[in-house]
Protein backbone atom coordinates (compact mmCIF):
# COMPACT_ATOMS: atom_id res chain seq x y z
CA UNK A 1 0.00 0.00 0.00
CA UNK A 2 2.92 2.35 0.60
CA UNK A 3 3.67 2.35 -3.12
CA UNK A 4 0.03 3.07 -3.92
CA UNK A 5 0.16 6.08 -1.60
CA UNK A 6 2.92 7.44 -3.83
CA UNK A 7 0.55 7.17 -6.78
CA UNK A 8 -2.18 8.91 -4.76
CA UNK A 9 0.26 11.73 -4.00
CA UNK A 10 0.96 12.09 -7.73
CA UNK A 11 -2.79 11.98 -8.45
CA UNK A 12 -3.56 14.78 -6.00
CA UNK A 13 -1.14 17.06 -7.85
CA UNK A 14 -3.98 17.56 -10.35
CA UNK A 15 -6.37 19.03 -7.76
CA UNK A 16 -8.25 21.29 -10.16
CA UNK A 17 -9.13 18.55 -12.65
CA UNK A 18 -10.00 16.15 -9.82
CA UNK A 19 -12.48 18.60 -8.31
CA UNK A 20 -14.04 19.32 -11.70
CA UNK A 21 -14.31 15.58 -12.43
CA UNK A 22 -16.08 14.86 -9.14
CA UNK A 23 -18.34 17.92 -9.52
CA UNK A 24 -19.48 17.11 -13.05
CA UNK A 25 -19.69 13.39 -12.26
CA UNK A 26 -22.04 14.19 -9.38
CA UNK A 27 -24.08 16.59 -11.54
CA UNK A 28 -24.29 14.00 -14.30
CA UNK A 29 -25.60 11.40 -11.85
CA UNK A 30 -28.14 13.68 -10.18
CA UNK A 31 -29.43 15.05 -13.49
CA UNK A 32 -29.76 11.51 -14.92
CA UNK A 33 -31.76 10.37 -11.89
CA UNK A 34 -33.86 13.53 -12.09
CA UNK A 35 -34.54 12.77 -15.75
CA UNK A 36 -35.81 9.27 -14.93
CA UNK A 37 -37.75 10.49 -11.89
CA UNK A 38 -39.46 13.17 -13.97
CA UNK A 39 -40.26 10.59 -16.65
CA UNK A 40 -41.93 8.31 -14.12
CA UNK A 41 -43.88 11.19 -12.63
CA UNK A 42 -44.93 12.37 -16.11
CA UNK A 43 -46.26 8.92 -16.98
CA UNK A 44 -48.36 8.79 -13.82
CA UNK A 45 -49.50 12.38 -14.17
CA UNK A 46 -50.52 11.95 -17.80
CA UNK A 47 -52.78 9.07 -16.83
CA UNK A 48 -54.85 11.49 -14.74
CA UNK A 49 -55.39 13.79 -17.78
CA UNK A 50 -54.02 17.01 -16.23
CA UNK A 51 -54.16 20.44 -17.92
CA UNK A 52 -51.99 20.75 -21.04
CA UNK A 53 -49.70 23.35 -19.49
CA UNK A 54 -48.75 20.88 -16.75
CA UNK A 55 -47.55 18.33 -19.30
CA UNK A 56 -45.80 21.10 -21.26
CA UNK A 57 -43.81 22.16 -18.19
CA UNK A 58 -42.85 18.55 -17.44
CA UNK A 59 -41.75 17.94 -21.05
CA UNK A 60 -39.64 21.11 -21.00
CA UNK A 61 -38.08 19.93 -17.73
CA UNK A 62 -37.24 16.59 -19.34
CA UNK A 63 -35.53 18.29 -22.29
CA UNK A 64 -33.58 20.54 -19.95
CA UNK A 65 -32.42 17.52 -17.92
CA UNK A 66 -31.41 15.71 -21.10
CA UNK A 67 -29.27 18.63 -22.27
CA UNK A 68 -27.77 19.12 -18.80
CA UNK A 69 -26.94 15.40 -18.55
CA UNK A 70 -25.14 15.38 -21.91
CA UNK A 71 -23.11 18.47 -21.06
CA UNK A 72 -22.18 17.31 -17.55
CA UNK A 73 -21.22 13.82 -18.82
CA UNK A 74 -19.01 15.37 -21.51
CA UNK A 75 -17.37 17.66 -18.95
CA UNK A 76 -16.79 14.69 -16.61
CA UNK A 77 -15.12 12.66 -19.37
CA UNK A 78 -13.06 15.63 -20.52
CA UNK A 79 -11.64 16.54 -17.11
CA UNK A 80 -11.20 12.92 -15.97
CA UNK A 81 -9.22 11.94 -19.07
CA UNK A 82 -7.17 15.12 -18.99
CA UNK A 83 -6.35 14.41 -15.36
CA UNK A 84 -5.44 10.81 -16.24
CA UNK A 85 -2.96 11.84 -18.92
CA UNK A 86 -1.41 14.41 -16.58
CA UNK A 87 -1.20 11.83 -13.78
CA UNK A 88 0.52 9.30 -16.07
CA UNK A 89 2.99 12.03 -16.99
CA UNK A 90 3.62 12.71 -13.29
CA UNK A 91 4.18 8.99 -12.65
CA UNK A 92 6.65 8.66 -15.52
CA UNK A 93 8.59 11.77 -14.52
CA UNK A 94 8.70 10.78 -10.85
CA UNK A 95 9.82 7.25 -11.71
CA UNK A 96 12.49 8.46 -14.14
CA UNK A 97 13.88 10.94 -11.61
CA UNK A 98 14.34 8.08 -9.14
CA UNK A 99 15.59 5.63 -11.76
CA UNK A 100 18.17 7.90 -13.40
CA UNK A 101 20.71 7.81 -10.53
CA UNK A 102 20.43 4.01 -10.48
CA UNK A 103 20.78 3.49 -14.23
CA UNK A 104 24.46 2.57 -14.10
CA UNK A 105 23.90 -0.51 -11.95
CA UNK A 106 20.23 -1.33 -12.47
CA UNK A 107 20.80 -4.02 -15.12
CA UNK A 108 22.74 -6.10 -12.62
CA UNK A 109 19.51 -6.59 -10.68
CA UNK A 110 16.83 -6.68 -13.39
CA UNK A 111 16.68 -8.17 -16.85
CA UNK A 112 15.96 -5.69 -19.63
CA UNK A 113 12.64 -7.33 -20.57
CA UNK A 114 11.44 -7.19 -16.96
CA UNK A 115 12.36 -3.50 -16.77
CA UNK A 116 10.53 -2.85 -20.03
CA UNK A 117 7.45 -4.59 -18.66
CA UNK A 118 7.51 -2.45 -15.53
CA UNK A 119 8.22 0.87 -17.24
CA UNK A 120 5.62 0.37 -19.98
CA UNK A 121 3.07 -2.19 -18.81
CA UNK A 122 2.83 -1.23 -15.14
CA UNK A 123 2.67 2.50 -15.88
CA UNK A 124 -0.11 1.85 -18.40
CA UNK A 125 -1.95 -0.22 -15.77
CA UNK A 126 -1.98 2.82 -13.50
CA UNK A 127 -4.07 4.76 -16.02
CA UNK A 128 -7.11 2.97 -14.58
CA UNK A 129 -6.35 4.09 -11.05
CA UNK A 130 -7.96 7.50 -11.33
CA UNK A 131 -10.66 6.51 -13.85
CA UNK A 132 -11.75 3.28 -12.14
CA UNK A 133 -10.51 3.41 -8.55
CA UNK A 134 -10.01 6.94 -7.23
CA UNK A 135 -13.05 9.07 -8.08
CA UNK A 136 -15.91 6.66 -9.04
CA UNK A 137 -16.53 5.58 -5.41
CA UNK A 138 -16.72 9.25 -4.37
CA UNK A 139 -19.31 10.02 -7.06
CA UNK A 140 -21.17 6.79 -6.22
CA UNK A 141 -21.50 7.69 -2.53
CA UNK A 142 -22.54 11.32 -3.23
CA UNK A 143 -25.18 10.32 -5.80
CA UNK A 144 -26.58 7.51 -3.66
CA UNK A 145 -26.78 9.56 -0.46
CA UNK A 146 -28.48 12.42 -2.29
CA UNK A 147 -30.98 9.99 -3.84
CA UNK A 148 -31.68 8.29 -0.51
CA UNK A 149 -32.23 11.68 1.11
CA UNK A 150 -34.70 12.65 -1.65
CA UNK A 151 -36.69 9.38 -1.56
CA UNK A 152 -36.95 9.50 2.24
CA UNK A 153 -39.46 12.36 1.86
CA UNK A 154 -41.82 9.97 0.04
CA UNK A 155 -41.08 6.59 1.65
CA UNK A 156 -38.68 5.69 4.41
CA UNK A 157 -38.85 2.02 3.44
CA UNK A 158 -37.81 2.78 -0.14
CA UNK A 159 -34.93 4.90 1.18
CA UNK A 160 -33.80 2.06 3.47
CA UNK A 161 -34.00 -0.38 0.55
CA UNK A 162 -31.78 1.88 -1.51
CA UNK A 163 -29.36 2.16 1.43
CA UNK A 164 -29.19 -1.64 1.72
CA UNK A 165 -28.59 -1.92 -2.01
CA UNK A 166 -25.86 0.73 -1.81
CA UNK A 167 -24.04 -1.18 0.95
CA UNK A 168 -24.30 -4.50 -0.88
CA UNK A 169 -23.36 -3.35 -4.38
CA UNK A 170 -20.92 -0.65 -3.38
CA UNK A 171 -19.01 -2.25 -0.50
CA UNK A 172 -19.74 -5.86 0.45
CA UNK A 173 -19.64 -7.45 -3.01
CA UNK A 174 -16.53 -5.52 -4.17
CA UNK A 175 -14.68 -6.40 -0.94
CA UNK A 176 -15.49 -10.11 -1.31
CA UNK A 177 -14.26 -10.15 -4.89
CA UNK A 178 -11.18 -8.09 -3.99
CA UNK A 179 -10.02 -10.91 -1.74
CA UNK A 180 -10.35 -13.43 -4.57
CA UNK A 181 -8.76 -11.04 -7.03
CA UNK A 182 -5.38 -10.82 -5.28
CA UNK A 183 -4.12 -14.26 -6.24
CA UNK A 184 -5.27 -13.89 -9.84
CA UNK A 185 -3.70 -10.44 -10.25
CA UNK A 186 -0.40 -11.64 -8.80
CA UNK A 187 -0.30 -14.38 -11.42
CA UNK A 188 -1.07 -11.96 -14.25
CA UNK A 189 1.67 -9.51 -13.25
CA UNK A 190 4.18 -12.33 -12.91
CA UNK A 191 3.27 -13.95 -16.24
CA UNK A 192 3.35 -10.62 -18.06
CA UNK A 193 6.80 -9.78 -16.70
CA UNK A 194 8.20 -13.19 -17.58
CA UNK A 195 6.66 -13.13 -21.06
CA UNK A 196 8.07 -9.66 -21.75
CA UNK A 197 11.50 -10.78 -20.53
CA UNK A 198 11.55 -13.87 -22.72
CA UNK A 199 10.33 -11.98 -25.80
CA UNK A 200 13.08 -9.39 -25.35
CA UNK A 201 15.72 -12.08 -25.03
CA UNK A 202 14.28 -13.87 -28.06
CA UNK A 203 14.82 -10.82 -30.26
CA UNK A 204 18.23 -9.97 -28.78
CA UNK A 205 19.45 -13.54 -29.10
CA UNK A 206 17.68 -14.51 -32.34
CA UNK A 207 20.93 -14.90 -34.27
CA UNK A 208 22.54 -17.13 -31.65
CA UNK A 209 19.38 -19.21 -31.30
CA UNK A 210 19.40 -19.71 -35.06
CA UNK A 211 23.09 -20.66 -35.14
CA UNK A 212 22.78 -23.20 -32.32
CA UNK A 213 19.43 -24.53 -33.60
CA UNK A 214 17.53 -23.63 -30.43
CA UNK A 215 14.97 -21.39 -32.14
CA UNK A 216 12.09 -23.89 -32.06
CA UNK A 217 12.73 -24.67 -28.39
CA UNK A 218 12.62 -20.96 -27.53
CA UNK A 219 9.47 -20.51 -29.60
CA UNK A 220 7.77 -23.34 -27.69
CA UNK A 221 8.77 -21.66 -24.43
CA UNK A 222 7.28 -18.35 -25.59
CA UNK A 223 4.08 -20.08 -26.71
CA UNK A 224 3.81 -21.78 -23.33
CA UNK A 225 4.24 -18.48 -21.47
CA UNK A 226 1.76 -16.80 -23.80
CA UNK A 227 -0.86 -19.47 -23.10
CA UNK A 228 -0.32 -19.14 -19.35
CA UNK A 229 -0.75 -15.37 -19.59
CA UNK A 230 -3.93 -15.78 -21.66
CA UNK A 231 -5.38 -18.23 -19.12
CA UNK A 232 -4.69 -15.83 -16.26
CA UNK A 233 -6.37 -13.04 -18.22
CA UNK A 234 -9.39 -15.27 -18.86
CA UNK A 235 -9.66 -16.01 -15.14
CA UNK A 236 -9.51 -12.30 -14.43
CA UNK A 237 -12.19 -11.46 -17.00
CA UNK A 238 -14.38 -14.31 -15.77
CA UNK A 239 -14.23 -13.06 -12.19
CA UNK A 240 -14.97 -9.50 -13.33
CA UNK A 241 -17.98 -10.61 -15.37
CA UNK A 242 -19.29 -12.68 -12.47
CA UNK A 243 -18.91 -9.71 -10.13
CA UNK A 244 -20.80 -7.44 -12.51
CA UNK A 245 -23.54 -10.07 -12.96
CA UNK A 246 -23.95 -10.43 -9.20
CA UNK A 247 -24.04 -6.67 -8.77
CA UNK A 248 -26.72 -6.36 -11.44
CA UNK A 249 -28.72 -9.19 -9.85
CA UNK A 250 -28.68 -7.48 -6.45
CA UNK A 251 -29.66 -4.16 -8.04
CA UNK A 252 -32.62 -5.76 -9.82
CA UNK A 253 -33.68 -7.51 -6.63
CA UNK A 254 -33.67 -4.19 -4.79
CA UNK A 255 -35.73 -2.61 -7.60
CA UNK A 256 -38.28 -5.44 -7.33
CA UNK A 257 -38.35 -4.97 -3.57
CA UNK A 258 -39.07 -1.26 -4.06
CA UNK A 259 -41.92 -2.11 -6.47
CA UNK A 260 -43.38 -4.49 -3.88
CA UNK A 261 -42.98 -2.08 -0.96
CA UNK A 262 -44.32 0.83 -3.01
CA UNK A 263 -47.36 -1.12 -4.14
CA UNK A 264 -48.06 -2.23 -0.58
CA UNK A 265 -47.79 1.35 0.71
CA UNK A 266 -50.08 2.59 -2.05
CA UNK A 267 -52.68 -0.05 -1.11
CA UNK A 268 -52.43 0.84 2.58
CA UNK A 269 -52.64 4.55 1.79
CA UNK A 270 -49.17 5.42 3.09
CA UNK A 271 -47.93 6.47 -0.37
CA UNK A 272 -49.62 8.45 -3.09
CA UNK A 273 -49.79 6.20 -6.16
CA UNK A 274 -48.74 9.19 -8.27
CA UNK A 275 -45.17 8.76 -7.00
CA UNK A 276 -44.80 4.99 -7.34
CA UNK A 277 -43.54 5.05 -10.92
CA UNK A 278 -41.12 7.86 -10.01
CA UNK A 279 -39.57 5.83 -7.16
CA UNK A 280 -39.26 2.72 -9.33
CA UNK A 281 -37.57 4.69 -12.14
CA UNK A 282 -35.16 6.20 -9.60
CA UNK A 283 -34.18 2.76 -8.32
CA UNK A 284 -33.61 1.46 -11.85
CA UNK A 285 -31.32 4.35 -12.70
CA UNK A 286 -29.35 4.90 -9.50
CA UNK A 287 -27.86 1.41 -9.54
CA UNK A 288 -26.17 2.20 -12.84
CA UNK A 289 -23.56 3.95 -10.67
CA UNK A 290 -22.91 0.82 -8.65
CA UNK A 291 -22.20 -1.41 -11.66
CA UNK A 292 -18.74 0.15 -12.31
CA UNK A 293 -17.83 -0.68 -8.71
CA UNK A 294 -18.10 -4.37 -9.60
CA UNK A 295 -14.83 -3.90 -11.49
CA UNK A 296 -13.35 -1.89 -8.61
CA UNK A 297 -11.50 -4.89 -7.04
CA UNK A 298 -9.92 -5.76 -10.40
CA UNK A 299 -8.62 -2.27 -11.07
CA UNK A 300 -7.64 -1.64 -7.46
CA UNK A 301 -5.58 -4.82 -7.22
CA UNK A 302 -4.12 -4.22 -10.67
CA UNK A 303 -3.08 -0.70 -9.66
CA UNK A 304 -1.67 -1.84 -6.33
CA UNK A 305 0.43 -4.59 -7.94
CA UNK A 306 1.59 -2.26 -10.71
CA UNK A 307 2.64 0.43 -8.22
CA UNK A 308 4.49 -2.13 -6.09
CA UNK A 309 6.36 -3.63 -9.06
CA UNK A 310 7.17 -0.21 -10.50
CA UNK A 311 8.44 1.55 -7.40
CA UNK A 312 10.20 -1.53 -6.00
CA UNK A 313 12.85 -0.95 -8.68
CA UNK A 314 13.80 2.41 -7.21
CA UNK A 315 12.85 2.01 -3.55
CA UNK A 316 14.82 -1.19 -2.89
CA UNK A 317 17.91 0.22 -4.60
CA UNK A 318 18.99 3.43 -2.87
CA UNK A 319 20.55 6.04 -5.17
CA UNK A 320 24.30 6.03 -5.47
CA UNK A 321 24.47 9.78 -5.02
CA UNK A 322 23.91 11.74 -1.85
CA UNK A 323 21.47 14.58 -1.59
CA UNK A 324 23.11 17.77 -2.71
CA UNK A 325 24.02 20.01 0.20
CA UNK A 326 26.59 22.60 1.09
CA UNK A 327 29.25 19.88 1.53
CA UNK A 328 29.10 18.73 -2.09
CA UNK A 329 31.78 20.11 -4.41
CA UNK A 330 32.94 20.07 -8.01
CA UNK A 331 36.18 18.90 -9.56
CA UNK A 332 38.53 21.52 -10.91
CA UNK A 333 39.60 22.01 -14.51
CA UNK A 334 43.11 20.55 -14.24
CA UNK A 335 44.45 17.00 -14.35
CA UNK A 336 42.99 14.77 -11.65
CA UNK A 337 44.83 12.74 -9.02
CA UNK A 338 43.27 9.46 -7.86
CA UNK A 339 43.82 7.86 -4.45
CA UNK A 340 42.28 4.45 -3.75
CA UNK A 341 42.54 3.45 -0.11
CA UNK A 342 41.85 -0.16 0.98
CA UNK A 343 38.81 -0.56 -1.26
CA UNK A 344 36.75 -3.77 -1.18
CA UNK A 345 33.70 -4.48 -3.31
CA UNK A 346 31.30 -7.28 -4.17
CA UNK A 347 28.16 -7.25 -6.30
CA UNK A 348 24.83 -7.57 -4.53
CA UNK A 349 23.72 -11.14 -3.76
CA UNK A 350 27.29 -12.37 -4.31
CA UNK A 351 29.64 -13.31 -1.50
CA UNK A 352 32.82 -13.35 -3.63
CA UNK A 353 34.89 -10.19 -3.30
CA UNK A 354 35.56 -8.66 -6.71
CA UNK A 355 38.04 -6.23 -5.12
CA UNK A 356 39.88 -7.00 -1.89
CA UNK A 357 41.70 -4.23 0.00
CA UNK A 358 42.95 -2.46 -3.13
CA UNK A 359 45.14 0.60 -2.57
CA UNK A 360 46.55 2.76 -5.38
CA UNK A 361 47.94 6.26 -5.83
CA UNK A 362 47.75 7.84 -9.28
CA UNK A 363 49.21 11.33 -9.37
CA UNK A 364 47.76 14.10 -11.54
CA UNK A 365 49.03 13.90 -15.11
CA UNK A 366 50.37 10.34 -14.67
CA UNK A 367 49.97 7.51 -17.16
CA UNK A 368 48.94 4.23 -15.51
CA UNK A 369 48.22 0.82 -17.04
CA UNK A 370 46.24 -1.83 -15.14
CA UNK A 371 46.83 -5.38 -16.36
CA UNK A 372 45.92 -8.84 -15.20
CA UNK A 373 43.85 -11.88 -16.16
CA UNK A 374 40.13 -11.69 -16.90
CA UNK A 375 38.02 -11.43 -13.75
CA UNK A 376 40.76 -9.81 -11.68
CA UNK A 377 38.62 -6.71 -10.98
CA UNK A 378 40.14 -4.20 -13.41
CA UNK A 379 36.90 -3.02 -15.02
CA UNK A 380 35.10 -2.98 -11.67
CA UNK A 381 37.77 -0.66 -10.31
CA UNK A 382 37.01 1.82 -13.10
CA UNK A 383 33.28 1.61 -12.32
CA UNK A 384 34.02 2.60 -8.72
CA UNK A 385 36.14 5.55 -9.85
CA UNK A 386 33.27 6.62 -12.13
CA UNK A 387 30.89 6.35 -9.15
CA UNK A 388 28.77 3.81 -11.00
CA UNK A 389 29.00 1.57 -7.91
CA UNK A 390 29.55 2.19 -4.21
CA UNK A 391 32.46 0.64 -2.35
CA UNK A 392 31.75 -1.85 0.42
CA UNK A 393 34.85 -0.76 2.33
CA UNK A 394 37.54 1.86 1.89
CA UNK A 395 37.38 5.15 0.06
CA UNK A 396 38.27 6.77 -3.26
CA UNK A 397 39.63 10.31 -3.44
CA UNK A 398 39.73 12.56 -6.50
CA UNK A 399 42.11 15.49 -6.02
CA UNK A 400 42.08 14.76 -2.30
CA UNK A 401 38.26 14.87 -1.98
CA UNK A 402 36.16 11.81 -1.20
CA UNK A 403 34.19 10.71 -4.24
CA UNK A 404 31.05 10.62 -2.07
CA UNK A 405 31.32 14.38 -1.66
CA UNK A 406 31.58 15.13 -5.39
CA UNK A 407 28.58 15.49 -7.67
CA UNK A 408 28.30 12.75 -10.29
CA UNK A 409 27.80 15.30 -13.04
CA UNK A 410 31.09 16.92 -12.12
CA UNK A 411 32.87 13.55 -12.12
CA UNK A 412 31.51 12.45 -15.49
CA UNK A 413 32.14 15.86 -17.02
CA UNK A 414 35.81 15.57 -16.09
CA UNK A 415 36.25 12.10 -17.62
CA UNK A 416 36.91 10.68 -21.05
CA UNK A 417 35.57 7.13 -20.78
CA UNK A 418 35.81 4.17 -23.12
CA UNK A 419 34.30 0.98 -21.74
CA UNK A 420 34.34 -2.53 -23.13
CA UNK A 421 30.77 -2.02 -24.35
CA UNK A 422 29.99 1.45 -25.72
CA UNK A 423 26.49 2.44 -26.75
CA UNK A 424 25.71 3.95 -30.13
CA UNK A 425 22.34 5.49 -30.84
CA UNK A 426 20.27 5.08 -33.96
CA UNK A 427 21.08 8.04 -36.20
CA UNK A 428 24.22 9.19 -38.00
CA UNK A 429 27.93 9.30 -37.20
CA UNK A 430 27.61 13.05 -36.72
CA UNK A 431 24.79 12.70 -34.20
CA UNK A 432 26.74 10.11 -32.22
CA UNK A 433 29.83 12.34 -32.18
CA UNK A 434 27.89 15.41 -31.09
CA UNK A 435 27.09 13.62 -27.83
CA UNK A 436 30.60 14.53 -26.72
CA UNK A 437 30.58 18.11 -27.97
CA UNK A 438 27.24 19.42 -29.14
CA UNK A 439 28.61 22.65 -30.63
CA UNK A 440 31.40 20.96 -32.62
CA UNK A 441 31.76 22.06 -36.24
CA UNK A 442 31.84 19.67 -39.17
CA UNK A 443 35.56 20.39 -39.60
CA UNK A 444 36.24 19.33 -36.00
CA UNK A 445 34.25 16.15 -36.49
CA UNK A 446 36.07 15.28 -39.70
CA UNK A 447 39.42 15.95 -37.99
CA UNK A 448 38.81 13.41 -35.24
CA UNK A 449 37.56 10.86 -37.78
CA UNK A 450 40.90 11.20 -39.57
CA UNK A 451 42.78 10.62 -36.30
CA UNK A 452 40.95 7.34 -35.68
CA UNK A 453 41.17 6.30 -39.34
CA UNK A 454 37.45 6.68 -40.07
CA UNK A 455 38.02 9.41 -42.66
CA UNK A 456 36.46 7.17 -45.29
CA UNK A 457 33.05 7.65 -43.62
CA UNK A 458 30.83 10.69 -44.15
CA UNK A 459 29.21 12.46 -41.23
CA UNK A 460 25.81 11.45 -42.61
CA UNK A 461 26.72 7.75 -42.57
CA UNK A 462 23.81 5.95 -40.82
CA UNK A 463 24.38 4.17 -37.53
CA UNK A 464 21.92 1.44 -36.62
CA UNK A 465 20.65 0.74 -33.10
CA UNK A 466 23.55 -0.33 -30.88
CA UNK A 467 25.84 0.22 -33.89
CA UNK A 468 24.78 -3.07 -35.46
CA UNK A 469 26.10 -1.99 -38.88
CA UNK A 470 29.58 -1.25 -37.47
CA UNK A 471 32.35 -3.77 -36.85
CA UNK A 472 33.97 -4.14 -33.44
CA UNK A 473 36.96 -2.08 -34.51
CA UNK A 474 34.77 0.66 -36.01
CA UNK A 475 32.79 0.92 -32.79
CA UNK A 476 35.99 1.37 -30.80
CA UNK A 477 37.26 4.00 -33.25
CA UNK A 478 34.01 5.93 -32.99
CA UNK A 479 34.14 5.71 -29.18
CA UNK A 480 37.72 7.05 -29.17
CA UNK A 481 36.68 9.84 -31.55
CA UNK A 482 34.07 10.92 -29.01
CA UNK A 483 36.65 11.07 -26.23
CA UNK A 484 39.03 13.10 -28.41
CA UNK A 485 36.22 15.60 -28.98
CA UNK A 486 35.30 15.88 -25.31
CA UNK A 487 38.83 16.95 -24.19
CA UNK A 488 38.40 16.18 -20.48
CA UNK A 489 41.43 15.77 -18.21
CA UNK A 490 40.91 12.23 -16.85
CA UNK A 491 41.03 9.30 -19.29
CA UNK A 492 39.58 5.96 -18.22
CA UNK A 493 40.17 3.45 -21.01
CA UNK A 494 39.01 -0.15 -20.75
CA UNK A 495 40.42 -2.23 -23.62
CA UNK A 496 39.90 0.68 -26.07
CA UNK A 497 41.71 -0.98 -29.01
CA UNK A 498 41.14 -4.69 -28.45
CA UNK A 499 39.41 -5.08 -31.84
CA UNK A 500 41.96 -3.09 -33.87
CA UNK A 501 44.97 -4.32 -35.76
CA UNK A 502 48.43 -3.43 -34.45
CA UNK A 503 49.16 -0.61 -36.94
CA UNK A 504 45.81 1.09 -36.41
CA UNK A 505 46.19 0.71 -32.64
CA UNK A 506 49.61 2.33 -32.74
CA UNK A 507 48.34 5.28 -34.81
CA UNK A 508 45.29 5.82 -32.59
CA UNK A 509 47.37 5.70 -29.40
CA UNK A 510 49.77 8.24 -30.89
CA UNK A 511 46.99 10.80 -31.32
CA UNK A 512 45.44 9.92 -27.98
CA UNK A 513 48.63 10.28 -25.94
CA UNK A 514 49.53 13.46 -27.79
CA UNK A 515 46.23 15.09 -26.78
CA UNK A 516 46.46 13.67 -23.23
CA UNK A 517 50.08 14.75 -22.72
CA UNK A 518 49.33 16.59 -19.46
CA UNK A 519 46.25 14.59 -18.46
CA UNK A 520 45.74 11.59 -16.18
CA UNK A 521 45.36 8.33 -18.06
CA UNK A 522 44.22 4.99 -16.64
CA UNK A 523 44.44 2.23 -19.25
CA UNK A 524 43.15 -1.30 -18.79
CA UNK A 525 44.70 -3.70 -21.26
CA UNK A 526 45.30 -7.39 -21.82
CA UNK A 527 48.01 -6.55 -24.33
CA UNK A 528 51.37 -5.90 -22.74
CA UNK A 529 53.05 -4.37 -25.80
CA UNK A 530 53.56 -0.62 -25.82
CA UNK A 531 53.40 -0.26 -22.03
CA UNK A 532 56.97 1.09 -21.88
CA UNK A 533 55.60 4.64 -22.16
CA UNK A 534 53.44 4.26 -19.03
CA UNK A 535 54.63 5.85 -15.78
CA UNK A 536 53.20 3.02 -13.71
CA UNK A 537 51.88 -0.49 -14.31
CA UNK A 538 49.48 -2.07 -11.82
CA UNK A 539 49.18 -5.86 -11.94
CA UNK A 540 45.97 -7.33 -10.48
CA UNK A 541 44.88 -10.89 -9.80
CA UNK A 542 41.80 -12.18 -7.95
CA UNK A 543 40.77 -8.67 -6.91
CA UNK A 544 44.10 -7.71 -5.38
CA UNK A 545 47.14 -5.71 -6.47
CA UNK A 546 50.01 -8.19 -6.76
CA UNK A 547 52.63 -5.90 -8.35
CA UNK A 548 53.17 -2.28 -9.27
CA UNK A 549 55.98 -0.26 -10.78
CA UNK A 550 57.33 0.97 -14.10
CA UNK A 551 57.80 -1.38 -17.05
CA UNK A 552 61.56 -1.61 -16.46
CA UNK A 553 61.16 -2.21 -12.73
CA UNK A 554 58.66 -5.02 -13.23
CA UNK A 555 60.77 -6.73 -15.87
CA UNK A 556 63.85 -6.57 -13.64
CA UNK A 557 61.85 -7.94 -10.72
CA UNK A 558 60.98 -11.06 -12.78
CA UNK A 559 57.69 -11.51 -10.97
CA UNK A 560 54.07 -11.85 -12.08
CA UNK A 561 54.26 -9.24 -14.85
CA UNK A 562 57.48 -10.74 -16.21
CA UNK A 563 55.76 -14.14 -16.42
CA UNK A 564 52.81 -12.62 -18.29
CA UNK A 565 55.19 -10.93 -20.71
CA UNK A 566 57.02 -14.16 -21.43
CA UNK A 567 53.75 -15.97 -22.12
CA UNK A 568 52.69 -13.21 -24.51
CA UNK A 569 56.00 -13.46 -26.37
CA UNK A 570 55.69 -17.22 -26.72
CA UNK A 571 52.18 -16.84 -28.17
CA UNK A 572 52.85 -13.98 -30.55
CA UNK A 573 56.34 -14.88 -31.77
From TrEMBL:
The chain positions of domain ABC transporter read 338-567
Annotated GO MF terms:
ATP binding
Keyword match Transmembrane helix? yes
SUPFAM superfamilies reported for this sequence: ABC transporter transmembrane region (SSF90123), P-loop containing nucleoside triphosphate hydrolases (SSF52540)
The entry's localization annotation reads: Cell membrane
User: What parts of the sequence cross the membrane?
Assistant: 20-44, 50-72, 129-150, 156-179, 245-267, 273-296
* Cited SMART domains: AAA
Membrane topology annotation: Multi-pass membrane protein
Q: The ABC transmembrane type-1 domain covers which part of the protein? A: 22-305
Q: What is its main location?
A: membrane
InterPro entries of this UniProt entry?
AAA+_ATPase (IPR003593), ABC1_TM_dom (IPR011527), ABC1_TM_sf (IPR036640), ABC_CydC/D (IPR014223), ABC_transporter-like_ATP-bd (IPR003439), ABC_transporter-like_CS (IPR017871), P-loop_NTPase (IPR027417), Type_1_exporter (IPR039421)
Keywords of this entry: ATP-binding, Membrane, Nucleotide-binding, Transmembrane, Transmembrane helix
Q: Supply the name of the protein.
A: ATP-binding cassette subfamily C protein CydC
Q: Which organism is it from?
A: Peribacillus huizhouensis
Amino acid sequence: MRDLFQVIRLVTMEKKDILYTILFGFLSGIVAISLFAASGYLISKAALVPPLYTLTVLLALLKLCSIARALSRYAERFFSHRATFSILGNVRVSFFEKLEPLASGIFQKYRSGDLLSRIVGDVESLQNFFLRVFYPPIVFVLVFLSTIFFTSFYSVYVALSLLAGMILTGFIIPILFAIRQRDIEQGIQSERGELSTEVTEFFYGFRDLKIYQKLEEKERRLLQLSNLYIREQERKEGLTNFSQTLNTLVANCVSWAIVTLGAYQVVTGKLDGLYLAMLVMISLNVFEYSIPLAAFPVHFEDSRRAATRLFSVVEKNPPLKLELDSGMCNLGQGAIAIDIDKVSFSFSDHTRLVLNQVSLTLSAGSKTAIVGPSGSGKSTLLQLVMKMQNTDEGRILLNGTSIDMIEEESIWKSMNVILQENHFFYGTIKENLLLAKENATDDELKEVLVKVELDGYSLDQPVFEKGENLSGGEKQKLAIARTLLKRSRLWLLDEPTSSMDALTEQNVYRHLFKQAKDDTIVLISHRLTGLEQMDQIIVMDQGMVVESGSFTELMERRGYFYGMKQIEKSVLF
